[in-house]
Amino acid sequence: MTNAKKPDLDLGDVVTASAAKQIAENIRSAILQGKLKVDVRLPSEDELAAKFNVSRPTIREALKRLAAQHLIRSRRGPTGGNFVTTPGLPEAGRSLANSTTLMVAVGDINVDQIVTARLELESVCVKLACEHRTNDQLEIMRAELELQKKVNLTDEEFCDSDVRFHRAIVDASANTLMRFLMHSVIEGLQPISNMIIFRVRERQEIVSFHKRIFTAISDRKKTIAIDALNELAAYTRGRLAAAINLRG
Fold first, then answer.
1. Do the beta carbons of residue 31 and residue 78 sit within 8 Å?
2. How far apart are CA 67 and CA 181, in angstroms?
């Protein structure tokens, strides 16, 4: 349900340079501070242009920036306009994953940090998964295991299945914040690791680790699950080092 009342807010002053960016940042701050509530309709483009003393194209650019951040959504029609929204977990996680991938690309995150972060964070998820996993989530893991055993699977298909398997573990943790944080590892960093080591790893080694983790989660045996995850991390670290040496 939308709130038709237009908010009377002090969104801050804007200088002419990079006006669209500043307007978007001011509105974003108002949303994050709770001054603009979810489902509230923003003032019209004309009203915003008058408020900030800029042109309508500048306002449109600012609104595009907010839409790209999944902070507003547009609706057409007599009751349409631009409404405050919040990014869902997939969108928020994707944004975090993209930022993390960029940090790897520019060298702010190295390979050893990738493995360490993945192990520490996923260890928590594995423990929680042992407590909270559902039969449906176990079926997802089991299906990926069966797929990974196929010898005719391409490297890309195997890597995709690898990501889905670990995503299922994270989802089984039943912890929304951990699921969000792990998006940067599972969706952002794991594909990078796979891209580096796929030529030097043995698929069946990966499958054997996955099977042990899956069985332990299914049996709710935390210690065994963590041990298997630790061994997978050690194997991955070794294969990454080997792959980097070959490239060097």
1. no
2. 22
What domains, with CATH codes, occur in the chain?
Answer: 19-84 (1.10.10.10), 89-247 (1.20.120.530)
27: nearest Cα among 15, 44, 10, 39: 10
- The SS3 call for residue 82 is strand
- Which amino acid belongs to residue 72? I
Provide the token pair at 208. Answer: 């054997």
Q: Specify the 3-state DSSP secondary structure of 123.
A: helix
Residue 85: other Cβ atoms inside 10 A:
18
Residue 73's DSSP bridge partners are 83
Highest mean pLDDT out of 13-17, 127-131, 238-242: 127-131
Beta bridge partners of 41: 83
Alpha carbon distance 187, 97 (integer Å): 6
Residues 132-163 have pLDDT tens digits of 999 999 999 999 999 999 999 998 899 899 98
- The amino acid sitting at 52 is F
pLDDT in tens, 52-94: 999 999 999 999 988 887 788 888 877 889 999 876 666 666 6
Burial class (CB in 10 A: 0-12, 13-18, 19+), 246: exposed
Distance CA 227, CA 203 (A): 19
Beta-sheet strands, E only, within the chain: 72-75, 81-84
SS3 228: helix
Distances (CA, A) of 230 to 143, 187, 217, 236: 23, 20, 14, 10
